[in-house]
From TrEMBL:
Monomer. Part of the FGAM synthase complex composed of 1 PurL, 1 PurQ and 2 PurS subunits. The active site is at H57, H108 (proton acceptor). Residues 1-23, 396-420 are annotated as: Disordered. It is found in: Cytoplasm. The keyword Magnesium applies. Pathway: Purine metabolism; IMP biosynthesis via de novo pathway; 5-amino-1-(5-phospho-D-ribosyl)imidazole from N(2)-formyl-N(1)-(5-phospho-D-ribosyl)glycinamide: step 1/2. Keywords: ATP-binding, Cytoplasm, Ligase, Magnesium, Metal-binding, Nucleotide-binding, Purine biosynthesis. Mg(2+) 2 binds at D130, D286. This is Phosphoribosylformylglycinamidine synthase subunit PurL. Belongs to the FGAMS family. Part of the phosphoribosylformylglycinamidine synthase complex involved in the purines biosynthetic pathway. Catalyzes the ATP-dependent conversion of formylglycinamide ribonucleotide (FGAR) and glutamine to yield formylglycinamidine ribonucleotide (FGAM) and glutamate. The FGAM synthase complex is composed of three subunits. PurQ produces an ammonia molecule by converting glutamine to glutamate. PurL transfers the ammonia molecule to FGAR to form FGAM in an ATP-dependent manner. GO terms for cellular component: cytoplasm. It comes from Nocardia seriolae. Pfam families: AIRS (PF00586), AIRS_C (PF02769), FGAR-AT_linker (PF18072).
């Protein structure tokens, strides 16, 4: 049984035995360091563990030196409501009333290009297990998707698989998908981004963390059996780049993508919650990227002792698996728990009730080493922290790209602009129907938004709103945003614009923003220009959070998002969590809930079209500098929206971002199926007023009876505002007075026809 297995004693006796460490992604100096740590060459199983745990995806070896800045800029005041932060499976925030919410966003980019359906599905499954591992019940998911050009032949394959994967897994779990974002841009052609967010809820006292302590406590693996799917999977896939040849022969390191079973995960959720409720769990870790290598080393590293694992006890679903394969397998729907000996029987009984396979595979020891045996022979004997936390840390070269100045000098101000009313109308319709701004209904209708009955806002909303407490009406709002175009122009400002928009989107619902998570998607860290983008984006995001007084609770870094030498647009996705004390006062997006509402534009409009959707759609142009960010203004708008919501002064609100004011007006009119008349401020440039993407602006609808009170509140707080129009119950059009008018039916046809025409005749 063990003659062909590489044991520790064999490794010590065969120091010159060649090993395929380079094929596993390790550099010469990294392999030398492993030998130095162990005092010998690693066994095959140890080599597998170190290679996956020291991969970019698991070790953050290129980003660690920059990510520390988040901690350096987080004040004690910002931490006050944070129960768990960076370094845990997910961030946890106290939202009051004895409730805590955990949320996180993670990437599953490379697997979703190779096998879009399973890549996206298991991305959802993985982030849900992170939330489960904190002791919470998952309550909602969101997805941030980036695809190549909408009309590229391969985009349909990826879009179809990813959307079905996200929907298929989330719908089967019974989790509402309450929002997200879908972007089409050629930079993502060979490297789509699939970022999934999950939020969960628990009572504050139910928080669980990942650590193995208590000598003699048992390690129990429960959930699905371990198979060959995903060997190397996310850990190797996410740590290297696709070569330029997309035909298949030119792809580097593409092991099989994991296969998900949402029904097994649904049962696992209920099983975990019952185990938590019964007090049977000391520590817990989900099995995601790097599988058992990660779970065992991280649990042991975070505990107060060592660990002994009997690998031959792991339930398998494939014959003849080697120790290295068992440790590296990324089979889905698995969890690892630390349980006291006197609770093992009760733990097993709960698992049997839910028909969940559970096996004692080891125990916590009094030593400081992680020892793994295979049929009584030692195949791993390592200090666990060297695997989990003490991997290489690189200070990669950082250099502003040589072409950045030229990019910033190439302003959109030189581009031809529409001048007449007819030209403005044509521009609106073209942009409204563009893949960049058209309705995402074709995508979102494949997701269940209202399952579980606690979704308050999802469709057509700036943020998803979920009720947490039926008695009090307490709820949360979630929004995710990113702009690769702005971040390319100025990564520091681009990251802050993503933060500002997500912050504003939460505030627009009437919720108070409380915490941040992020998923930082960039090209190769071996490119100094990419590392400059990354460094600047991290600093921008951290400084922005400090200015707004809300902490980053955790996140994810995804490097090597490029095809050949061509990196994606730098895409820092920012998720913001807000709290609303009573979801009944949430602010909807659609106009027309009150007759004859007044439309008010909050904030200031400047001539800011660089990096805009107009520049992209009309001129295929990217250059100049992104809009200015004023975080104090964002904070003020947030406070006014919350106050206006509490006092019944606001009947609808919609954030102004991509496409400018006119896009916001049309979306709000279509959402409310209500016509309106826009009055341009005297002396204002019609094009700039309608299409500028200046930040820090919101369109609000105010009942006539509240207009004076609301405007006085804005004046008293120093927030610029202008009366921009009225809801017109007697019309069937959106009219910009003195310029153009378009019927709602024509606007809807333009807005909703594009994605079905591109992707709708799917074979699935």
């Amino acid at each position: 049984m063990t003659s062909h297995v590489d044991t520790v004693s064999n490794a010590a006796a065969t120091s010159d035995h060649p090993q395929p460490y380079k094929e596993l992604g390790l550099k010469d100096d990294e392999y030398a360091r492993i030998k130095e740590i162990l005092g010998r060459r690693p066994t095959d199983a140890e080599l597998a563990m170190y290679s996956v745990m020291w991969s970019e995806h698991c070790s953050y070896k290129s980003s660690k030196v920059h990510l520390r800045y988040f901690g350096e800029t987080t004040t004690e005041e910002m931490k006050k409501s944070m129960l768990a932060g960076i370094g845990e499976n997910a961030g946890v925030v106290d939202i009051g009333g004895g409730w805590a919410v955990t949320f996180k966003v993670e990437s599953h980019n490379h697997p979703s290009y190779v096998e879009p359906y399973q890549g996206a599905a298991t991305g959802v499954g993985g982030i849900v297990r992170d939330i489960m591992a904190m002791g919470a019940r998952p309550i909602a998911v969101m997805d941030q998707l980036r695809f190549g050009a909408a009309d590229h032949p391969d985009t349909r394959r990826v879009v179809d698989g990813v959307v079905r994967g996200v929907g298929g897994y989330g719908n089967s779990l019974g989790l509402p998908n309450v929002g997200g974002e879908t972007v089409f841009d050629p930079s993502y052609q060979g490297n789509p981004l699939v970022n999934a967010l999950c939020a969960g809820v628990m009572r504050v006292e139910d928080l669980h963390l990942a650590f193995a302590s208590g000598q003699g406590n048992k390690i129990i693996l429960f959930g699905a059996r371990t198979g060959l799917d995903g060997i190397g999977g996310v850990s190797v896939l996410a740590s290297d780049t696709f070569s330029g040849d997309e035909s298949g022969s030119g792809r580097k390191k593409l092991p099989s993508v994991q296969v998900g079973d949402p029904f097994a995960e649904k049962v696992l959720i209920e099983c975990c919650l019952e185990l938590y409720h019964a007090g049977l769990v000391v520590g817990i870790q989900d099995l995601g990227g790097a599988g058992l290598s990660c779970a065992t080393s991280e649990l042991a590293a975070a505990g107060d002792g060592g660990m002994h694992i009997e690998l031959d006890q792991v339930p398998l679903r494939a014959a003849n698996m080697t120790p290295a394969e068992i440790l590296s397998s990324e089979s889905q729907e698995r969890m690892c728990a630390v349980v006291t000996p006197d609770n093992v029987d009760a733990f097993m009984a709960v698992c049997r009730k839910w028909d969940v396979t559970a096996t004692v595979i080891g125990e916590v020891t009094d030593g400081e080493r992680l020892i793994i045996t295979w049929h009584d022979e030692i195949v791993v004997d390592v200090p666990p922290r060297t695997v989990a936390h003490q991997g290489p840390v690189y200070e990669r070269p950082v250099q502003r790209p040589a072409d950045q100045d030229a990019l910033n000098a190439d302003s959109a101000s030189r581009l031809n602009r529409p001048e007449t009313g007819d030209e403005l109308r044509d521009t609106l319709l073209k942009m409204l129907a563009s893949p960049q701004l058209c309705s995402r209904k074709w995508i979102t209708e494949q997701y269940d938004r209202y399952v579980r009955g606690n979704t308050v806002l999802a469709e057509n909303a700036d943020a998803g709103v979920i009720r947490i407490d039926e008695e009090t009406g307490r709820g949360i709002a979630l929004a995710t945003d990113a702009s690769g175009r702005y971040t390319k122009l100025d990564p520091y400002t681009g990251a802050q614009l993503a933060l500002a928009e997500a912050f504003r989107n939460v505030a627009v619902t009437g919720a108070t923003p409380k915490a941040v998570t992020n998923c930082l998607n960039f090209g190769s860290p071996e490119d100094p220009g990419v590392m400059w983008q990354f460094q600047q984006a991290v600093r921008g995001l951290a400084d922005g959070c400090a200015a707004l007084g809300i902490p980053v609770t955790g996140g994810n870094v995804s490097f090597y998002n490029q095809t050949g030498q061509t990196a994606i647009l730098p895409t820092p996705v920012v998720g913001v969590l807000g709290v609303i004390d009573d979801v009944h006062r949430r602010i909807p997006t659609g106009l027309g809930t009150e007759p004859g509402e007044t439309l008010i534009l909050l904030g200031e409009t400047r001539d800011e079209l660089d990096g805009s959707i107009w520049a992209q759609v009309e001129h295929d142009h990217l250059g100049g500098l992104p809009p200015q960010v004023d975080l104090a203004r964002e904070q003020l708008i947030s406070e006014i929206l919350v106050s206006g919501s509490r006092d019944g002064m606001i009947s609808a609100a919609h954030d102004i971002s991509e496409g400018g004011l006119i896009q916001t007006v049309v979306e709000a009119a279509l959402a409310g199926e209500t016509a309106c008349r826009i009055l341009l401020p005297e002396g204002a440039d019609p094009f700039v007023t309608l299409f500028s993407e200046s930040a820090g602006r919101v369109l609000v609808a105010v009942p006539r009876s509240e207009e004076t009170r609301f405007s006085k509140m804005c004046d008293a707080r120093g927030l610029p505002w202008v009366r921009i129009g009225v809801v017109d119950d007697g019309s069937d059009s959106v009219e910009v007075q003195g310029q153009f008018s378009v019927k709602l039916d024509d606007l809807r046809a333009a807005h909703e026809g594009t994605l079905p025409a591109l992707f709708g005749n799917s074979d699935h």
